[in-house]
Automatic annotation (TrEMBL):
One of its GO terms (molecular function) is sequence-specific DNA binding. It holds the Pfam family WRKY. Coiled coil: none annotated. Residues 100-138 are annotated as: Disordered. The lineage of its organism: Eukaryota, Viridiplantae, Streptophyta, Embryophyta, Tracheophyta. Residues 157-214 form the WRKY domain. One of its GO terms (cellular component) is nucleus. InterPro entries: WRKY_dom (IPR003657), WRKY_dom_sf (IPR036576), WRKY_plant (IPR044810). This is WRKY domain-containing protein. Gene3D superfamilies: WRKY domain (2.20.25.80). It is found in: Nucleus. Keywords: DNA-binding, Nucleus, Transcription, Transcription regulation.
Length: 373
DNA sequence: GAGATTTGACCATT
DNA sequence: AATGGTCAAATCTC
């Protein structure tokens, strides 16, 4: 898989080269054509590498969604399949691809629900704390597979950063329900919450209920391509799909805004000496509508256009690692998604304080549930 | 030390 | 009164 990543990086480097030389090559379309074809060839090569892995994943997903397969059988196959793949692919996305918040709904309602959770913190000490909302509309439930390795009681990563604020035994359920809210609730008054509960009859499947939408930027590292969950069982608010990142720069992203066309990426894992690698895929491609590089994306995917959420996540809060295999989806198989936007959000690269970086593989200690790398 | 998690208690809703 | 959602102090992790 490292070789694949290296190939991707090389393609990115070529892209940066094209960008840097665009002024010089403005009157030399032959050169631009040559370079773009080279880029396409590189990414086609990547695609072929990834597609073979992706096929294996599809087999797993079909099995998991089959009613004939018990949860144990699914898990066994799941773990067997992971051995075929690179060992850094986490379960949740290996099976389900993208998080539930990745629907291509275009611009969504991003207005903070000021009457509910956003004011909860400040009102905590008031005389009347609002405990449960009436109506309870903006809610959506999906089912996701347990992580493929390590602590199976941990909920699958979904591309957002959550902070657990409660856990409760639920009547009639073998497993407790965990309550999470957006990590950036305080910073951005983000009202997004989720409840995670394991199913009684399928202990390796989590039922995740999302409530409210993310209004924060930094937690918005969710991919934009489709999110095939095991089962979407409830969607009470048809006009309010699950968390979708806000298309606004973070409050402290002055440097970022000046980098709209910059292509700097810091490659994480090379402590202190971050290597500058090709480009910020989201900023350069995620919103591009007419640029040559965006056109390259369209050529590769046969689709294109469409605005996507911004990437984000910072510090140790971000434990999400999504496989290159999913990046293949994002880049090549998503007809409705901008390829580079999807590529960014597929998790190989993360924006960190305005500078995208690569996540190192995360492995959970099966005995302690802690993270090791 | 900062931030995340755990867990018993509180309280709104049914 | 039962139940579920949230708070917040204690504890844990990095």
């Amino acid at each position: 898989m490292d070789e694949t990543i290296a190939t991707i990086l090389y393609g990115c480097k070529l892209g940066k080269e094209v960008e840097a030389n665009l002024p010089n090559w403005a009157n030399q379309p032959a050169i631009i054509l040559s370079k773009t074809e080279e880029i396409i060839e590189v990414f086609n090569n990547v695609r072929e590498r990834l597609m073979s892995h992706h096929h294996q994943q599809q087999v797993v997903q079909e099995w998991l969604s089959s009613s004939a397969a018990t949860s144990h059988q699914a898990l066994e196959l799941f773990h067997a399949a992971e051995n075929m793949l690179d060992h850094r692919v986490p379960a949740a996305f290996a099976v389900h691809g993208m998080p539930p918040g990745s629907d291509q709904m275009g611009l969504q309602q991003q207005v903070m629900d000021a009457s509910h959770d956003s004011s909860r913190g400040a009102a905590a000490s008031s005389t009347q704390r609002q405990r449960r909302r009436t109506g309870d509309t903006d809610r959506r439930t999906v089912r996701l597979a347990a992580p493929r390795m390590g602590n199976l009681e941990l909920p699958p990563e979904d591309g957002y950063t959550w902070r657990k604020y409660g856990q409760k035994e639920i009547l009639g359920s073998r497993f407790p329900r965990a309550y999470y809210r957006c990590t950036h609730q305080k910073l951005y008054h983000c009202p997004a919450k989720k409840q995670v509960q394991r199913l009684d009859d399928h202990p390796y499947v989590f039922e995740v209920t999302y409530r409210s939408q993310h209004t924060c930027y930094m937690s918005a590292i969710a991919p934009t391509v489709l999110a095939p969950s095991v089962e979407e069982i409830n969607h009470q608010a048809t006009t309010t799909p699950p968390p979708a990142p806000l298309l606004l720069p973070p409050p402290t992203s002055a440097s970022l805004s000046g980098h709209w066309l910059s292509m700097d990426i810091k490659q994480q894992g090379e402590a202190g000496t971050s290597t500058t690698t090709p480009f910020d895929m989201q900023r350069d491609f995620g919103h591009g509508t007419g640029g040559s590089l965006a056109s390259i994306c369209n050529v590769m995917t046969g689709g294109g256009g469409g605005a996507g959420p911004s990437g984000g996540g910072y510090g140790r809060e971000v434990d999400h690692y999504q496989p290159v295999v999913d990046m293949a989806d994002a880049m090549f198989n998503s007809g409705s998604s901008n390829c580079m936007n999807g590529l960014l959000h597929s998790g190989i690269w993360y924006a960190d304080e305005g500078i995208a970086r690569r996540r190192e593989p995360v492995v959970r200690d099966p005995f302690r549930g802690s993270l090791t790398t």
